[in-house]
Amino acid sequence: MSRLGIFVNRQTLSSSPQLTALVKCRDAGESMGHTVEFIFPVDIKKIPKLDALFIRANTDPMNTTYVAAKMAQMYGVPVIDDPSSIQICADKINMYMHLMKKNVSIPRTKFLKKKELDAGSACQLFEELGTPLVLKEPSTSFSVRVEKVSSVLELLKIAKRFFKLSDWIVVQEYIESRFDWRIGVLSGELLYACRYIIPSETFKIQASVNGHIVYCDVESVPADQVPPEVIELGMAAGNAIGSGMYGVDIKESNGKLYVIEVNDNPSLEGGEDAHYPGMFRKIISYLMTGDASCYREELSDQVYGPPGFEDEYGLGSATTFAQADAPVENEVYSYKIDFSER
Fold first, then answer.
1. In terms of domains, do 165 and 314 share one?
2. Is the Cα dihedral 219, 223, 226, 229 positive or negative?
């Protein structure tokens, strides 16, 4: 009998929909003949004794979920999400660089360095990418620190706030739509598909409006009713990040598709499984039947950073970055952070 651990924390259990999803997952695992137990941060020492680990708490390289994923990887325990996926998806620049390397369709995107921002460069951004623009602080999640700006003054004001948290920000053309496709991908295959209906009060799937949090509606869509090109793009985006489980957000505008985000640890509690009742069984089967040693070899800490501003993604000529195709120590690709002006 195999042991599946589901890594959770207090925040995970505080939400009724999340708790319901956890129970579904546990029941699915037990119906498949596995022993399922919830692993809290204080129980992290149990991970080496598990046969698989499924992380169902907010992932971030700076919290215990990453430690749990790294420990599982070290002991050869198959894990979702793997450390590489957590590391890549936690950094928007890192994520977009992976998509660019695989020529996955995304909105026109530039990476703006703190030292490069002034009124002139802001005007150039509007000229090149149009109006409005979307600004993202690279470590954002749940649509926090994602803002739409329509003027140079707005851009400078929002960017100044974001630069207090990061040396770089992401600037993208705005793609208007009333819903996002969310394509769940597991090891390169379709896991589920749904539409996230964007609230009329905002352009994001989650936002604070007049002091209240408004959320998107989730509409599960059968696979045969999803345009094949949407599924193909979702799988291509997931494969660009790794071989784990991802939620890929896609917008459609004027007949073109754009990947907006690739999320590790995607939501599974919003009704995504309405037309995919075997969703949890598929996840557990993948964790339990895969060869742990092969799975471990596939994991990678490969990280990409943005190219220098002299090429097609940049604004100026200065660069303090390793090029995305230039190997550095231990085959890790990363962009340098300048702390001199902090």
1. yes
2. positive
- Residue 326 in any domain: the answer is yes
Task: Specify whether the CB–CB gap between 249 and 230 falls below 8 A.
Answer: no
> Is the per-residue pLDDT at 3 higher than 80?
yes
What is the CATH number for 321? 3.30.1490.20
Q: What is the pLDDT of residues 214-263, one digit of tens each?
A: 556 889 999 999 999 999 999 999 999 999 999 999 999 988 999 999 99
- Residue 161 domain-assigned (yes or no): yes
Looking at residue 310, its amino acid is E
| DSSP β-bridge partners for residue 213 | 208
Q: Is 184 inside a domain boundary?
A: no
Asked if the peptide bond before residue 81 counts as cis, ω within 30 degrees of 0, the response is yes
Q: How far is CA 85 from the centre of its chain?
A: 8
Is 216 among the domain residues?
Answer: no
Domain span at residue 25? 3-87
Q: What does 222-274 look like in DSSP terms, one character per residue?
A: -GGGS-HHHHHHHHHHHHHH-SSEEEEEEEEETTEEEEEEEEES---SSSTTT
* Number of structural domains found in the chain: 2
Residue type at position 12? T
Q: What is the pLDDT of residues 294-304, one digit of tens each?
A: 333 333 444 55
* Whole-prediction pTM: 0.82
